[in-house]
Write a structure and sequence with these properties.
2 domains; 7-stranded antiparallel β-sheet; DUF1795 domain-containing protein; Protein Transport Mog1p, Chain A; 303 residues; alpha+beta
Length: 303
């Protein structure tokens, strides 16, 4: 489950941008940073974006030990998720150690570069991800400088309900809200993350994309989920929720040395070329949780 969360959220003309001098709080988090000039607060995730260049900076906080999680960032592990590790540096950061990774990834037919700052302690790991197209490589230094300006503020207000642009109803489902993470709401049955118990994640696309074949996109998006590359689909159904058209996919998958699990995915396509996504995962009582995932999905509403 730890890897499922980690790689789920890793898995989305030249212009010069100088650094601004204003520190800005990151919505949905207790962190702030100094974004590059021209970057604006995102309405889709915790961070900043520059629409013209297709660049973004986002923050994720995972409830997992930094020392344990950073070990997952190996060349082999990243390559298995479609990413290539170019460089890794250990730095002094805010009184402790942190890792900075430089990564490449192909998405939507374009090559992207990532400057990824990873730090934390025994209870949490923070990922600050600066993403920019390869053709905008000149942004590298300003983005890296920005992610390194990240600081924590315990007094900063965090209210996930005021950040996301959607809602779902989990009443009587047994699921408990755990965490807001970069545009997504995380729920689990036992109130813990990571966990081996059933989980459900509700979120939206980070950027606007043009989708011509909804079914193919939904199937490809499903196969990008951890452990789902070779999944055999049990159901692929057209679905309409909140006047949005999309596809529901259900599959049972089995990873080496792990028990089988069911993965449920619903993608709803928005009018502005974005999409909303709901992903449920369980290793137990497949029929029960399939029904619960479907019930929760049907309560989805845009704000």
């Amino acid at each position: 489950m730890k890897n499922f969360l980690l790689f789920t959220f890793l898995a989305f003309a030249n212009l010069y941008l100088s650094q601004s001098n204003q520190r800005v709080s990151v919505s949905g988090t207790k962190y702030s940073m100094i974004p590059p000039e021209g970057f604006e607060k995102s309405q889709s995730f915790s961070g900043f974006q520059h629409t013209e260049s297709g660049s973004s900076i986002m923050i994720n906080e995972l409830p997992a030990s930094y020392e344990d999680l950073v070990k997952e960032f190996t060349s082999e592990a990243l390559k298995s998720k479609g990413m290539n590790l170019l460089d890794k540096t250990i730095i002094d950061f805010n009184g402790s150690k942190a890792n900075v990774f430089k990564i490449t990834q192909v998405a939507n037919g374009k090559i992207y570069l990532k400057q990824l700052l990873v730090f934390g302690d025994q209870t949490k790991t923070v990922l600050v991800n600066g993403i920019y197209p390869e053709i905008n490589k000149n942004l590298e230094e300003s983005i890296k400088k920005s992610i390194l300006s990240t600081i924590y503020n315990s007094e900063q207000n965090v209210d996930p309900a005021n950040v996301v642009s959607f809602s779902v109803d989990i009443a009587d489902s047994g699921f408990k809200f755990i965490k807001y993470m970069s545009g997504s709401l995380l729920y689990s049955i036992d109130g813990k993350i990571p966990t081996d118990k059933p989980t459900i994640i509700v979120g939206n696309s980070i950027s606007k994309i043009s989708v011509k074949d909804f079914k193919k996109f939904a199937e490809d998006r499903f196969r990008s989920l951890p452990g789902a590359k070779d999944a055999v689909f049990k159901n692929v159904n057209k679905i309409t929720i909140d006047n949005l058209n999309g596809y529901e996919i259900i599959a049972e998958v089995s990873e080496k040395e792990d028990q089988p699990q069911m993965i449920y995915q619903t993608i709803l396509f928005n009018e502005d070329s974005g999409y909303f996504i709901i992903v449920g995962q369980t290793k137990e009582n497949f029929e029960k949780y399939k029904s619960l995932f479907q019930k929760i999905s049907k309560t989805f509403k845009r704000k």
